[in-house]
Amino acid sequence: MASAAGARTRVARDLKRERSAHKDRPRRRGFFAIILGVGLIGLVWLHVWLRLQVVHMGYVLSTTSKLQHRLEQENRELKIELAMMTSPDRLESLARRRLGLQQPEKGQVIVLP
Fold it and tell me: Which of 16, 77, 78, 113 is the most exposed place for a label (fewest CB within 10 A)?
């Protein structure tokens, strides 16, 4: 009889362990579900943030490209203006009008060795 009582006690202990293990499983499932949900929400937020960064960089790139084209056009215009300002014909006419200079006559030019 003692062994029967011992067997019942063991069976009762095993049942208690199984019940307590079953009680922990829903808690674990809930915990893992919460962790999974938070992870998914984090991934969605990361995706949204990255998309916003792509759009922002697109605007920055567009603005920079427009600025580059405008500066290239201004550079071309300034090169043309520089070429006109340093043109020998223009400089000669300015020297004649403003400074009263003329072409040198023979004998006025001295070449140094």
Answer: 113
Residue where the block lists tokens 């293990």: 21
Q: What does the pLDDT profile of the chain (113 residues) look like in tens digits?
A: 556 666 667 766 776 666 655 555 667 788 889 999 999 999 999 999 999 999 999 999 999 999 999 999 999 999 999 999 999 999 999 999 999 999 888 888 888 88
Q: For residue 52, is it within any domain?
A: yes
Total domains in the chain come to 1
Give Cα separations from 92 to 36, 81, 86, 108, 109 (angstroms). Answer: 83, 17, 10, 18, 17
Domain that holds residue 73: 2-85
Say if 38 falls within a structural domain: yes
